[in-house]
Structure to design on (472 residues):
């Protein structure tokens, strides 16, 4: 019993002592319920050609103008590729903080594309600890070339479609360094079966390294699994420099592909980076706030 | 036995009763610049006020500031405040001349403010209002960005004022 009393007394007096201790420590100990979510794992919604885990915040509309020149090994006659240009105009919109939709037009194969992107899991620390952010992406691409009158026999409208599903998994290791892995599945309704399959899989790896507060280096590589031995296509690779200025992000990139839809750049890249089949290009984004920014966190 | 227990509790409880914690908070900052006025609001601050000796602490999570534009919020966290590295702004000090018997009226908090990892000695003038068992604190003061090593990248076309006005409204309730 005495021991019991002593226990109570000690507890009580330690409580007394604690009350006079640093108020700040008391405040901190009462804040253990907070969760901090990782923000800006990547600066933009694209690493180089492909998507990042980032979705647009609710009510924001992003206009993306992406441009790829021709191959630099075209020599002076092609002005090192600058005579040629492939573009994609696109709009990305945040329906909620976790759900974005996108629409775009790429001049390669006169393709129209649409995407939906949903952030399933968010990297966090604090009360809720989670090691990575995971976004799922689904997209459709419709190629309007070749022209209706020029199609080969038996070619139907449905053959113009291709689909992409991606799981984007990224971790922001520290404020300067993020990495992402992207298992990818692509289905093309019509292919030349001598050189490729309708269903194709690839695994992408990408990253970002911040150099200053407004400048970052990015890189991306997609490795295709089970490639047909007659395939003339290469794995796509790209390096970029992101420069952020207010409402704009400029990305200057070099890559071995000219396509800007997954079908084109993951499964139909024809350039060999080491042979100098390199395209200089840029992505420019401009963000507009349309709706209110209320629901964050 | 139970009597001793009771006495011990009585001894302990007045200490706890002297402290108030933040029930509701609103921290607003306002930057008045040539191109664009920028304002953000934060309702996630927490704090403790010891009525007995006037000691006060508060803590404001930087990521809790809400802006009208989501992109601005990203820039604020990533570039200016670096909230990955410095997730909180804190104040630790004393309300000078505070008396429990006459709590209402003008007041001055003196102590250390930490923003962006930099600690400065500051004096914050404000007012206190007692309402029932609750205590209201209001203050308005300027924060010079350079004092706290907050730099604005030169590439940014948005002009941000060199000092911002911070308005603090806290309602304290007994702990």
């Amino acid at each position: 019993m005495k021991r019991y009393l002593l226990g109570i007394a000690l507890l009580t007096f330690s409580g007394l002592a604690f009350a006079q201790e640093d108020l700040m420590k008391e405040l901190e100990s009462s804040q253990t319920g907070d969760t901090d979510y990782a923000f800006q794992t990547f600066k933009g919604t694209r690493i180089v050609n492909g998507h990042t885990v980032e979705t647009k915040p609710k009510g924001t509309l992003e206009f993306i103008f992406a441009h790829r020149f021709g191959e630099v090994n075209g020599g002076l006659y092609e002005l090192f590729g600058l005579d040629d240009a492939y573009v994609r105009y696109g709009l990305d919109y945040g329906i909620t903080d976790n759900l974005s939709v996108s629409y775009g037009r790429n001049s390669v194969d006169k393709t129209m594309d649409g995407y939906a992107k949903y952030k399933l899991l968010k990297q966090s620390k604090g009360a809720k600890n989670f090691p990575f952010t995971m976004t799922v992406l689904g997209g459709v691409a419709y190629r309007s070339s070749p022209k209706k009158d020029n199609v080969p026999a038996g070619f139907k409208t449905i053959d113009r479609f291709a689909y992409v599903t991606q799981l984007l998994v990224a971790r922001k290791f520290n404020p300067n360094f993020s990495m992402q892995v992207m298992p990818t599945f692509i289905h093309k309704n019509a292919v030349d079966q001598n050189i490729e399959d309708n269903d194709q899989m690839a695994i992408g790896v990408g990253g970002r390294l911040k150099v200053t507060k407004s400048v970052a280096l990015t890189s991306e590589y997609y490795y295709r699994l089970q490639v047909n031995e007659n395939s003339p296509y290469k794995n796509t690779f790209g390096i970029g420099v992101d420069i952020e200025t207010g409402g704009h992000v400029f990305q200057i990139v070099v890559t071995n592909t000219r396509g800007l839809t997954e079908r084109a750049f993951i499964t139909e890249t024809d350039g060999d980076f080491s042979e100098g089949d390199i395209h200089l290009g840029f992505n420019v984004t401009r963000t507009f706030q349309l709706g209110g920014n209320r629901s964050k966190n | 036995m139970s009597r001793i227990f009771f006495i011990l509790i009585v001894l302990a409880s007045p200490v706890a009763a002297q402290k108030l914690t933040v029930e509701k908070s609103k921290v607003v900052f306002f930057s008045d610049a040539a191109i664009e006025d920028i304002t953000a609001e934060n309702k996630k601050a927490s704090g403790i006020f010891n009525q007995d000796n006037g000691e006060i602490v508060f803590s404001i999570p930087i990521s809790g500031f809400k802006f009208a534009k989501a992109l601005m919020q990203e820039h604020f966290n990533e570039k200016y405040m670096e909230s990955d590295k410095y997730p909180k702004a804190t104040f630790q000090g004393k309300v000078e001349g505070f008396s429990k018997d006459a709590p209402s009226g003008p007041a001055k908090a003196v102590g250390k403010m930490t923003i962006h990892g930099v600690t400065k000695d500051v004096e914050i003038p404000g007012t206190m209002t007692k309402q029932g068992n609750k205590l209201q604190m209001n203050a308005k003061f300027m924060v010079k960005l350079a004092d706290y090593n907050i730099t604005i990248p030169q590439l940014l076309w948005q002009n941000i004022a060199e000092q911002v006005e911070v308005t603090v409204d806290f309602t304290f309730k007994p702990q």
Q: What stands out?
A: The CA atoms of residues 21 and 48 of chain B lie 4 Å apart. Chain B touches chain A through 47 residues (CB under 8 Å).
